[in-house]
Amino acid sequence: xxxxxxxxxxxxxxxxxxxxxxxxxxxxxxxxxxxxxxxxxxxxxxxxxxxxxxxxxxxxxxxxxxxxxxxxxxxxxxxxxxxxxxxxxxxxxxxxxxxxxxxxxxxxxxxxxxxxxxxxxxxxxxxxxxxxxxxxxxxxxxxxxxxxxxxxxxxxxxxxxxxxxxxxxxxxxxxxxxxxxxx
Length: 183
Prior knowledge:
By secondary structure, the protein is mainly alpha-helical. The chain has eight helices and four strands. Helix content is 42%, strand content 5%. Strand 1 (41-43) and strand 2 (50-52) form a beta hairpin. Keywords: Ligase, Transferase, Ubl conjugation pathway.
């Protein structure tokens, strides 16, 4: 995970898993993983120097050849984003499909519905899904509360590089480049 995403998940009020957003409980260090990181060798993609994984981050910060390697990759996948703001759907705030309340973020909508509408069996359209390029604005979920709790436990923005129309290979390349740039 990149630092900003990890910090968001570890906020003191509610530390959560970076993938499923379930609450984290206090645990112990993964000593077996730490040992594996300290004993696994890798090669710098810039200067081809061999080192242990545990040393790679500090090496990458000072290796100009590695930084040039990363910048070449960034140039290869960076494209000029074209956004027509007039036709850009709002994927940040959502109305409640049961009542007239509006402007919930995803987490707020889930909490609102769990608190006030958990017993409402009316079939409704999920406003979060309907805002996505693959969403059907006419599809009514048979069990909206179950859908919310299964499908929207975490935000798509955690996994999507903000361009919902980009193809999967480009998005994966951008994610990998950004994760390598994070120090």
